[in-house]
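G., before I forget:
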Amino acid sequence: MISPRVARGTPVIVMGISGRAGTLHSRLMKEYGTNIVGGVSPKTERNEINGIPVFASCSDAVKATGATHCVALIAAPQLLAAITEAVAAGIKYMVTPAEGMPVYDALKARRLALDAGMLWIGPSTPGMAVPGEAKLGFLPNDSLRPGPLGVMSKSGTLSYEAGYRLSQRGIGQSVWIGVGGDPVKGAYYSDLVPFFAADTQTEALLIIGEIGGHEEEDLAATLKAQQFSKPVFALIAGRTAPVGVAMGHAGALVHGNHGTFEAKRSALAAAGVQVFSSLNEMVEGVCARLPQSD
Amino acid sequence: MYLLEHDAKELLAQHGVPIPPGRLIDGDETIHRPALPPGPWMVKGQTFTGGRGKAGMIRKASTLQQIVDHANAILGTMVRGHRINAIRIEQQVTAAEETYLAFLIDPAAGGVRVIMSARGGVDIETLPPELIQTDVAPPDSAALAACVRRLAAAMPSHEAGAMCAAAEMLARIFIEREALLLEINPLFVKSDGRWVVGDAKFVTDDNALFRQPKIRELLRQRAAAYPATHLKLEHGFDYVVVDPKGEIGLLTTGAGLSMMLIDEMRAAGLKPYNFLDVRTGGLREETTRLVQALGWIAEGRNVRVLLVNIFAGITDLGEFSTLLVAALRKVPQLKVPVVARLVGNGLQSAQATLDQAGIRLFTGLDGALDEVRRHLADGGESPQ
């Protein structure tokens, strides 16, 4: 697998660059320092947007720029086609923020990505960032700060809040990856554990989870099996959510005793993870274990 | 969306699946004998959770009086946080073996998990593993059918033929309707090889509704039973009243942060009224969605303060604030103080817009919650 870590010089192309989100966020990513070398839009007449050259297809963009990294700001119904195109063009690292991808499309896309050896981050994600280096997606700058904490999150907004508060207390992030809240997706927490275990700049891990599914439970099993030795903290949302009602994320649906807050808390705690159910507790808990810079 | 048993069965019946003849009785509707199928009957409370049998929400009846008594006992009962608003009365299936069949999307395996057992009618997790046949197949009808035949080969011959027939038909429906879960328990198998669906759990993929007209139509006809999904389909965002007596209306975006906010408010003794993931990134310079959400929040009789909490990633806060102020003007019935907590891209222009509208802006959530508490202590202004 290609490294989940990106660097300041990593060349990145943006699919859907002429759309509303594509135009805004290609500019914001570039301002953050991401090396955006090309955009893809089959529709636009424009040769460049935000000073970025625009190509008619992903394969044209890859041929012209040599990029292997891609952010697709494309709506959910068209995501499977975009991923198919990117895989065919030779992309090895793809971030797809759109929410609402049909599960059967995600199953097909996951198969494509696995077969091609492409790291796919998404759907339903704000993306990823290496603070101070580059961001692929739209994690808010207010929350980003270079530091020792590896972050994996199912929830965009909750991770923004967590990152923001920790940054204010002097604790930043090494690599931050929004895995997204969907049940079928490109990267799960467990898939990224070997990377965070080996990453020398990551001293501890913060998991932002929520009720539903069993990804947190699977993570607990993986941490144990791989004898992950760095401290792990987890913040889980939805402790008081009603059973059988999806709260926003398709994945956040509790059936019976599966996917409940308590099931996740006990599985993670048994794997040595410190689990919190409120932001303030989490911030105090992390600050008590990690050194803070000014 | 988790379909109620009645809707799951009627959807299956539309595709030719045999179900016991039955009728849905909603709330206060009077039960008339001529409207019912021939007895004896099962009286089944309709709710979104499993464990109905253990909770006494599934009962047998052999007279009309028994049906009425059971209906009175079941309707209005709370089961795991859900009120039972309807019952399905259907003909009992007699002289049949109870078997088990399920298809579910298995994210970790990247396919569809098939589970079959000759012993159904009980919680599948209580069965010893040697009585359960299971495997994973790719998500297409032919592969699923082949998987089913392979598993059935390992089962007692009496049930295998009927289960195979049932499973092939149900596999096709599962794939065509893009289901996430279809569990039939029990699947009744008669001695002559006929089969009938005893109970059905059906979970649809809300993200695929745009290309699933049959499920959209079901949802349209039964909107009242699925308010949250109906709203999402009609309006493109999620809204759930979490406490009808709640005092704090929430205008929030992001599922995780909104859920966490509710968890934390409750832990601190505050009473949030609603969950909302309004998706500020998708407002597209229109107030429609905000006006809709604010209008619903205004329906909360005890709502005394509105907390706006937006941590902007994809959203531009300046644009959002302009829309918020315009939307509040369009919902004059919401006569409560507004506390705003905003962080992210475009904060400066948001500050100017909210100042002008007399809305206090906080960047820390704790500060905003203190302000909310102050308004509640003041008694707030109660909506009419």
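Residues 140-287 of chain A form a domain with the Rossmann fold fold (CATH 3.40.50.261). DSSP finds nine helices and 14 strands in chain A.

More on Monday.
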